[in-house]
């Protein structure tokens, strides 16, 4: 029963969508297990160019069942829009299954996310303002509404009415905002419920029947390890676990069933939103990476902060996830760079740190210690074979493998589906 988790190794936007789009051809099930529509997975394939926020990136293969797992929070309006867009591109999304345990993002979540960011002022976290933090907070506080609740309208009405009473007290008394109207939200969400009802079901049996048949199940991570609420740069993190371990809980699959855990890393590193980033380049090189890599948020359009590959953070990420393989993306962005740097340690208060500090105020003051490697000339975009890469590119890849103690099995040299070098087969 091969379960393969595909997880972000950095601060998100590593190219998880592309890796899933490439691996899903041989899979039977793809499950999203965390986050919500804060995710923006870019997929470019013969059906077109897509930014997947909630629908798993395996939806383009007719034989693949795509599950939005219990660990995801769903904004139904965004999901319906995404389904509409797929339909416009003649992509059949009838194999979508939505866990009845997945929580919903409600209008008060998005509103409170924005109000809280305003209140933080200069200390804003730079969230995507999609209501993700407030929705996960309510889940844990036991006052969330789940997709399954939309099916029973009486029960939904009574839950919503008691929750909204509390939310309106916060909106009006803490933030001086006008209250939200119960009947308006109720009717809107009942309409969403009617449209989504055909997809909503208990998903445990779907996943476990597939595993019992020995089929390949892919777990599609969202966000990245350095945004994990426990292991990321707290409080500049997201609100659900993007780790492989999060995949176990967010999909309902035993850790014993995992065969491979693929960490997706860009050949450099990016971050959107606030928080420490030791290798950030605020110079022309950072600009060049942003321009060549089209480093603008798929969800918010914000310019991403760009920097050299951080192998200290990368090693930490490989450890907490237990990566069996790495998928390295955007290698082609370095085509033509005279030299490339890798951060191999941090300097803090005159001392060398070889680990990723848990305290963001320390990480903020860490200076990267760099190692410089020669770059390569010419384009890697047409290369499909590891041995045909320029020797400097191979050297760069091998050095990252050494620093992270993990093999790089997959290299992306462009955004299209076929622009991939399979160094070692990931799937049987
Ligand atoms: P994918 O799946 C990159 C970041 C936000 C912010 C922080 C908290 O495309 O890799 P949130 O809205 O989650 O409360 O914001 O997390 N963030 C992401 N950054 N890629 C993502 O998803 C992200 N999802 C959230 O920018 O810094
Ligand atoms: Mg993204």
Strand fraction: 15-25%
Tertiary shape: globular
Separation of the first and last Cα atoms = 11 Å
- Give the mean pLDDT: 97
Question: Care to describe what's here?
Answer:
It is a single chain. The chain has 428 residues and is an alpha/beta fold. 32% of the residues lie in helices and 21% in strands. The chain contains twelve helices and 20 strands. The chain has helices at residues 16-23, 76-88, 107-120, 132-140, 153-174, 182-196, 204-212, 244-251, 284-292, 311-321, 360-363, 391-404, and strands spanning 3-8, 29-32, 41-45, 48-52, 65-68, 73-74, 96-99, 103-104, 200-201, 217-220, 258-266, 269-271, 305-307, 309-310, 325-329, 339-348, 351-353, 367-374, 408-412, 420-422. Strands 9-7-5-2-10-1-11-15-19-20 form a ten-stranded mixed beta sheet, with helices on both faces. Strands 14, 16, 17 and 18 form a four-stranded mixed beta sheet that branches. Strand 19 and strand 20 form a beta hairpin. The radius of gyration is 21 Å and the shape is globular. 50% of the residues are buried. The model has no long low-confidence stretch (mean pLDDT 97). The protein binds 6-O-phosphoryl inosine monophosphate and magnesium ion. Residues 12-13, 39-40, 298-299 line the site of magnesium ion.
Question: Which key terms come to mind for this protein?
Answer:
428 residues; alpha/beta; 10-stranded mixed beta sheet; 12 helices; 32% helix; binds 6-O-phosphoryl inosine monophosphate; binds magnesium ion
């Amino acid at each position: 029963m091969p379960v393969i988790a595909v997880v972000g190794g950095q601060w998100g936007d590593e190219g998880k969508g592309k890796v899933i789009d490439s691996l899903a051809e041989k899979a039977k099930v793809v499950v999203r297990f965390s986050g919500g529509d804060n995710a923006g997975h870019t997929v470019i394939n013969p059906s077109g160019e897509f930014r997947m926020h909630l629908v798993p990136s395996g939806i383009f293969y007719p034989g693949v069942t795509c599950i939005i797992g219990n660990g995801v929070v769903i904004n139904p309006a965004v999901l319906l829009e995404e389904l509409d867009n797929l339909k416009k591109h003649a992509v059949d999304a009838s194999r979508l299954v939505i866990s009845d345990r997945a929580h919903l993002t409600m209008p008060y979540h998005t509103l409170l996310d924005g109000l809280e960011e305003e209140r933080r002022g200069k200390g804003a976290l730079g969230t995507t303002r999609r209501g993700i933090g407030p929705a996960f907070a309510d889940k844990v506080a036991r006052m969330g509404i789940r997709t399954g609740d939309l099916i029973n309208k009486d029960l939904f009405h009574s839950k919503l009415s008691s929750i909204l009473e509390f939310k309106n007290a916060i909106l009006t008394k803490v933030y001086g905002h006008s209250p939200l109207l119960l009947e308006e939200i109720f009717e809107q969400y009942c309409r969403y419920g009617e449209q989504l009802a055909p997809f909503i079901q208990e998903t445990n049996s779907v996943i476990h029947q597939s595993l019992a048949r020995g089929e390949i199940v892919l777990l599609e991570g969202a966000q990245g390890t350095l945004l994990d609420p426990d292991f990321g740069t707290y409080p500049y993190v997201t609100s659900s676990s993007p780790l492989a371990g999060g995949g176990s809980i967010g999909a309902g699959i035993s850790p014993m069933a995992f065969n491979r855990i693929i960490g997706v890393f860009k050949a450099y590193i990016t971050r959107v939103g606030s928080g420490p980033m030791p290798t950030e380049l605020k110079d022309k090189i950072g600009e060049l990476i942003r321009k060549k890599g089209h480093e603008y948020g798929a969800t918010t359009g914000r310019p991403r902060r760009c920097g050299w590959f951080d192998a200290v953070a990368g090693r930490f990420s490989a450890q907490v996830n237990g990566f069996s393989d790495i998928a390295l993306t955007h290698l082609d962005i370095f085509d033509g760079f005279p030299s490339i740097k890798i951060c191999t340690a941090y300097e803090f208060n005159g001392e060398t740190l070889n680990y990723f500090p848990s305290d963001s105020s320390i990480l903020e003051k860490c200076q990267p210690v760099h190692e410089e490697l020669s770059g390569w000339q010419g384009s890697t975009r047409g290369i499909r074979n590891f041995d045909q890469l320029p020797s400097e590119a191979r050297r760069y890849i091998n050095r990252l493998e050494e620093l992270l103690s993990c093999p790089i099995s997959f290299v992306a040299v462009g955004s299209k589906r076929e622009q991939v070098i399979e160094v070692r087969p990931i799937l049987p």
